[in-house]
């Protein structure tokens, strides 16, 4: 069995999709990605996860279309249920995630990037959901996550027309957070990850969770939850360390306690 997903552990963990030539999503890759996400999620040293594709041709160019014929009338049980499970696993990581996008992020590849908290794209990247051109749907979260990020009107334009966006357009509508010179997206993601990893890890995880829940809760409920989480965080040693380090003009030494 070929290794299609590579994992690098550490405070800034990395998961690399490595399915040449354009890192397509096959059932085998999805299964390996599930194991990789479990591994970095269970590692207590992990503070940020970077997801990227091998090479610069594609982050991930979408599903393996060669699998489509055998999926006829069985797409849910043979493909989509596992993908939804794994993509949700990525979206629900306890730590922030960053997608470093070079080249194509299409179909299931863009749906993977949408599961990440932040997206950095090289200036030659192309992002889109072209599934309707093949007579199928973006079935691994595209119709649900994309409108939550760019709004329903933009999401309908992207999905119904199926044309890829260039990086500058993706930035202008909030689909990506930053655009950098082609070939440097991973380096930029590593720099961003290092900045996040230096923040208080308990506060980072709480902030990610609160923001994720904000769109699903009434404002008053969200504010109440924010108050509860703030009280928990202020009772930690990390909160004391942050204040002491600030007053002493030194970097904080957070210990997740």
Automatic annotation (TrEMBL):
Catalytic activity: a (3S)-3-hydroxyacyl-CoA = a (2E)-enoyl-CoA + H2O; a 4-saturated-(3S)-3-hydroxyacyl-CoA = a (3E)-enoyl-CoA + H2O
SUPFAM superfamilies xref list: ClpP/crotonase (SSF52096)
Record-level Gene Ontology MF annotations: enoyl-CoA hydratase activity
Residues annotated as transmembrane: none
Entry EC number(s): 4.2.1.17
InterPro entries: ClpP/crotonase-like_dom_sf, Enoyl-CoA_hyd/isom_CS, Enoyl-CoA_hydra/iso, Enoyl-CoA_hydra_C
PROSITE patterns, sorted: ENOYL_COA_HYDRATASE (PS00166)
Keywords for the protein's UniProt record, in alphabetical order: Lyase
Pfam family, one: ECH_1
Top EC class of this enzyme: lyase
Top-level division of the source organism's lineage: Bacteria
Biological-process GO terms, alphabetical: fatty acid beta-oxidation
Family classification: Belongs to the enoyl-CoA hydratase/isomerase family.
Record's protein name: enoyl-CoA hydratase
């Amino acid at each position: 069995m070929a290794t299609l997903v590579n994992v690098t552990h550490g405070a800034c963990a990395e998961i690399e999709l490595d399915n040449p030539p354009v890192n397509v999503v096959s059932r085998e890759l999805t299964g390996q990605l599930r194991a990789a996400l479990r591994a970095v999620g269970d590692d207590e040293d992990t503070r940020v996860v970077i997801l990227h594709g091998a090479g610069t041709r594609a982050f991930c160019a979408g599903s393996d279309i060669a699998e489509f014929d055998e999926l006829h009338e069985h797409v849910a049980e043979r493909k989509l249920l596992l993908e939804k499970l794994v993509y949700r696993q990525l979206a629900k990581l306890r730590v922030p995630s960053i997608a470093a996008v070079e080249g194509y992020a299409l179909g299931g590849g863009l749906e993977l990037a949408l599961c990440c908290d932040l997206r950095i794209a090289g200036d030659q990247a192309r992002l889109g959901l072209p599934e309707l051109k093949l007579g199928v749907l973006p079935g691994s979260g595209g119709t649900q996550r994309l409108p939550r990020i760019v709004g329903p009107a933009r999401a309908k334009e992207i999905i119904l027309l199926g044309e890829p966006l260039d990086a500058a357009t993706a930035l202008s509508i909030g689909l990506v957070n930053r655009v950098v010179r082609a070939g440097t997206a991973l380096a930029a993601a590593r720099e961003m990850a290092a900045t996040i990893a230096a923040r208080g890890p308990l506060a980072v995880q709480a902030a990610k969770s609160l923001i994720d829940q904000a769109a699903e809760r009434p404002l008053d409920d969200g504010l109440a939850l924010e108050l509860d989480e703030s009280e928990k965080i202020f009772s930690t040693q990390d909160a004391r360390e942050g204040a002491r380090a600030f007053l002493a003009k030194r970097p904080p030494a957070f210990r997740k306690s």
